[in-house]
Fold:
Amino acid sequence: MSSFAEFFSGIGLVREAIEPLGWDCVFANDIAEDKAEMYRARFGDDHLVVEDINRLRLTDLPDDLDLLTASFPCIDLSLAGNRRGLAGEHSGTIWPFLDLTAGLVSERTPPKALLLENVTGFVTSNQGRDLAEVCARIGELGYFLDLVAVDARWFTPQSRPRLFVLAIREDLVERPLPPTGNLTRLRTAAIRSFQSTHRDVPFAELSLPEPPQVASRRLSQVLEYVPPDDESWWPGEQVKALCGAMHERHALRVNELLLGKRDGVATMYRRVRHGRTVGEVRNDNIAGCLRTANGGSSVQFLVDCRSGQPRIRPLTGLEYARLQGAGDFPITVGRRQAQSGFGDAVCVPAVRWLVDAAFGFLLSEFSQREPIQTRFANEPLDAVAAGG
Ligand SMILES: C[S@@+](CC[C@H](N)C(=O)[O-])C[C@H]1O[C@@H](n2cnc3c(N)ncnc32)[C@H](O)[C@@H]1O
Structure:
């Protein structure tokens, strides 16, 4: 088997994505007990260490790790966050991860590959200096690097562009090809600009297949049926007040839903603009980027006009799971905790596609690929789409 260690494991959606490809998870680490509770409900407790990564020692890690994954916190790198960059206390947790990697390289078996995931703002954070430092560190450890941007919307109805840093041990790359410079969906202008200004980084461009163009399901097809008398629906007056206070552009979108456009449904963020709470409605058949539900404004709501009247409720935990391509995941916690867990996680089919395409050749011949089937993928459309 080829083994991997999942750092910043959260609820375990990297594991959910790549175990069926034949990667065997032998170690997982996260600091958060609420995420760990969800992780355990899915995978059990065998390999999960709930601890601050700053406190992990090399001796805590198992031997012979083939792949290390790190979807480290984005709060200091994202536009929605504070842009402190890798000096920030949260996103700065990449440094202890790289220290542990360095320890494996110098004192144990160097992993074959590393996968880092974060927001696309990582490329430009501190004018590119943050990513440059990370790439330099990984390069010094004896790895070639590649950078790709993958958006969840190619796989599920959610906008979630993410940057992936792929690193492969030098001795495993026969002919390292430099970046082509071509602009593609995977290699965006920001990535190309970074590569052309950081020629000292040992880049080796992987030949990756074309990702899917669009998700096979629309937003309306991942919604749960929530009975009209469920308490999660907002009271009529509250809906009326919010719709009445909407910016014209967003009110028009609600009208379009009432006319049956976009299947009559859209997602909405509630934001405070100039001291007023307003609703901002999407107009493209997909959900906005899910986020961890710690701040009031980060929860995503459904605007449902299929009954001829606008109705509003928060998206459910299962809807969050489906938007991350994890419709099979057992949800044993309340809505808020599920929203936080899934909102902070990775999009399963996006990570699966990438790891299969980029690292598939590293799998040992003994790795057992599981048939990839999910309830979500096989559910008849009318069962999934029975709207509420
Ligand atoms: C972007 S999320 C990763 C989500 C994960 N990939 C998943 O699919 O659920 C970042 C994770 O880093 C964890 N984290 C933050 N600070 C940490 C620390 N000091 N040590 C270990 N984990 C930390 C958070 O609890 C969070 O689950």
About this structure: Residues 94-107 form the longest helix (14 residues).
